[in-house]
Amino acid sequence: GAGVSQSPRYKVAKRGQDVALRCDPISGHVSLFWYQQALGQGPEFLTYFQNEAQLDKSGLPSDRFFAERPEGSVSTLKIQRTQQEDSAVYLCASSLRSRKGNTEAFFGQGTRLTVV
Amino acid sequence: QQQVKQSPQSLIVQKGGISIINCAYENTAFDYFPWYQQFPGKGPALLIAIRPDVSEKKEGRFTISFNKSAKQFSLHIMDSQPGDSATYFCAASEGNTPLVFGKGTRLSVIA
């Protein structure tokens, strides 16, 4: 596809369950970002990859959150032992890397996670 | 500490009017300032962006005004239309670092 694809679109998890969220970035985009968006709030940074290297994971809220991008394309965000406070929309974005700095970040539609 | 402060939280504008949303930032190393538009159930989409070497950028009905000394930038939507009703986010970044977003402004354009 032409855009960033995320799956599933919706996920309902029972508290304590593990979940895995997938992101297919735009082909050729070096940079990949994960954001968490609570209802009525702006996206909050979680983690960032350049190719397969995770350059920044300072936004991950706890050690229950783990992200990987093993081949530098598809990325997975995993949340272990989900809690109700994990309920949010998880957004993935990708962009080209430029010597001039950031270029347009293209966002997927997000995965809405509801923990019950 | 919130790095990008956005106001107002919500805005109601008459059709044909001008919508103005403001953002202020703290980090003087920020060098990229985009505005994103988000419709319900969709991801944010880039509307317009500016770098600090210019004070204004216009694309169609959308204009960014940038004041480096005041560390502020704003989005102006001219001739606002009902289809512009959405949530708008300002953001900022330094180099290739991840974007930092404001909390958003919910715009409603009424006929």
Tell me the structural class of chain A.
Answer: mainly beta
H/E topology pattern of chain B? EEEEEEEEEEE
Helix content of chain B: under 10%
By DSSP (H or I, 4+ residues per run), the number of helices of chain A equals 0
Q: Summarize the amount of helix of chain A as a percent range.
A: under 10%
Question: Strand share of the residues of chain A?
Answer: over 45%
Q: Between the first and last Cα atoms of chain A, what is the distance in angstroms?
A: 33 Å
> Which structural class should the secondary elements of chain B be placed in?
mainly beta
Strand content of chain B: over 45%
Largest interface: A-B, 27 and 26 residues
What value does the Rg of chain A take, in angstroms? 14 Å
Protein model, in words:
The complex is a heterodimer of chains A (116) and B (111). Chain A is 0% helix and 47% strand. Chain A is built from no helices and eleven strands. In chain A, strands 2, 4, 5, 6, 9, 10 and 11 form a seven-stranded mixed sheet that branches. Chain A has a four-stranded antiparallel sheet with strand order 1-3-8-7, with no helix packed on it. Chain A starts with a strand and ends with a strand. Chain B is an all-beta fold. In chain B, strand 9 and strand 10 form a beta hairpin. The model of chain B has no long low-confidence stretch (mean pLDDT 95). Classes of the chains: A mainly beta (116), B mainly beta (111). Chain A binds chain B through residues 4, 31, 33, 35, 40-45, 48, 50, 56, 59, 91, 93, 97-98, 101-102, 104-110, and chain B through 6, 31-32, 34, 36, 41-46, 49, 51, 89, 93-104.
